[in-house]
Amino acid sequence: MNMIVPESTRGVSARPPVRWRLCWENDLELADHIELSDFFRKTYGPTGEFNAKPFEGHRSWAGARPEIRAIGYDDRGIAIHIAALRRFIKIGQTDLLVAELGLYGVRPDLEGLGITHSIRVMYPVLRDLGVPFGFGTVRAALQKHITRLLGRQGLATVLPGLRVRSARPDIYLTVPPTRVEDVVGLVLPIARPMSEWPAGDTIERNGPEL
Description:
Layout: E1 2-4, E2 19-24, H1 30-44, E3 68-74, E4 77-91, E5 94-106, H2 114-129, E6 133-139, H3 143-151, E7 157-167, E8 178-189, E9 202-204
C-alpha cells in the first residue's frame, strides 16, 4: 500500500515531496531488503564504528524483526524509514501491549524533519493495529532534541530517566544475554489516554530492541 504525505508534513517547499510506502514485512522483496540494507549502513555508519555492522549481508533489521514498515522515498531513493512491532512489555507488575517503534533512519540532508514526518505517518497505522500505545526509546543524550521535535508539538509524550532491559539479538560467550540501558521513552497514546500508562521507570522489553 502506498500513500503521499499531506502537504503539511512535506517540510520546506524546496524539497521534493516524500512518497510513503507502508508494507508488511512479508511483502518485502529481496530487492527491498538490499536497498534498505544499503540505506541503513550509510545512515548508521557515521554514528559509530559498529552501528552499521548489523546491516551487513543485505540484512535490513538490527535486532527484533519488524512487523510493518513505513518507508519514505523521494527522487533520490529511500529518504526516511521507521518500523513497528507489536509486543508486550512489562512495567512494574503490569504487562502492556504496545507497538514498539524503531529502526528509525533519515538521510542526512533531511535531518530535523524526518522524525516528525515519520510519527505523523505512523499514527493512522497504529490506530489500525488497535494498540493502546506506541512506544519507542532514544539515547538519553537526545532528550532535548526529541522534546523539541515531538514533545512540544504534541506528537509524543517524552519520559526521561527510564531503564530498559532487553535481550541481545545474538548470544555471546563473553557478555550476558541481556543488557540494561538508560534511555528516554516516547509514548504515543493511541486507543488509551496517557493517564493509563503504568507508573514505573523500569521496563522489561522481553526481547531484542527493534
